[in-house]
Specification:
Length: 236
């Protein structure tokens, strides 16, 4: 790589801002690497690849940030998006760009209540959006799935302390969703935003803090290999 090429890359990276996450392989488009960058609350999807169709692919990924994460597009751009008030989220964006790149372009979250099967108990975890003091909050509850309620079991009978699992989920939402605790059963985003799709995206990671951290560590190593070893700036 020549000095001029290095300077051009450095100028581009300076304009893009800090790298939030680098996906080393896009399984849906020629196995290129795609990065998500943030500067002043504006997120940019970028790749140094020059393969045919790269602009259209970048736009697809940007649109998935909107569809899956509740972001807003930046007028006149194909690769930029933001949250209301240019809110900056760190951890959630790692999960969002991962799904935006690795899932098919037509993938969408399920509709209806925000709920998921717990991994450490027979309980079903539900997150209910509510309003409190002009702010949007998310209340976490645990209950038996409908198929098991008919057996006559109670929540306390199946899991003696469901509040332990609720607290664990809340800790996961705080850790991986950049959310804040409201009380023993509720959390919110720092400015009280209503971002239901982002909560849907975070919940599977929040229910398994240890497993999610292991995944993040592995992804970090892959990202470092791509940046430092594989020369992603020269992809063609």
């Amino acid at each position: 790589m020549t000095i001029i090429q290095k300077n051009n890359i450095n100028n581009i990276l300076s304009d893009l801002g800090r790298c939030i996450e680098l996906i080393s392989i896009d399984p849906n488009f020629n196995n290129i690497s795609i990065g998500l960058y943030e500067k002043n609350g504006i997120y940019t999807v970028w790749s140094f690849s020059k393969v045919t169709g790269i602009k259209e692919r970048i736009e697809e990924v940007r649109n998935q940030l909107i569809n899956l994460g509740g972001m807003e597009s930046i007028s006149g751009t194909y690769n930029k998006a933001k949250y209301p008030n240019n809110q900056v989220f760190e951890r959630p964006m790692k999960f969002l760009i991962k799904q935006a790149v690795e899932k098919p372009a037509n993938y969408r979250h399920s509709t209806g209540p925000i709920k998921i099967k717990d991994l450490r108990s027979p309980l079903e975890i539900t997150i209910t959006p509510k309003q409190a003091n002009s702010s949007n909050i998310y209340e976490v509850s645990a209950s038996l799935p409908a198929t098991e309620k008919n057996s006559g079991d109670s929540v306390s009978g199946v899991h003696t302390k469901p509040e332990i699992r609720i607290n664990a989920i809340i800790r996961g939402l705080i850790k991986y969703g950049n959310m804040e605790r409201v009380d023993n059963t509720s959390v919110k985003f720092s400015n009280g935003e209503k971002l239901d799709n982002l909560v849907r995206l975070i919940l599977p990671y929040a229910r398994n803090i240890t497993g999610t951290q292991d995944m993040l560590d592995a992804d970090s190593i892959k990202g470092q290999m791509t940046t430092n070893t594989l020369g992603f700036a020269n992809q063609e």
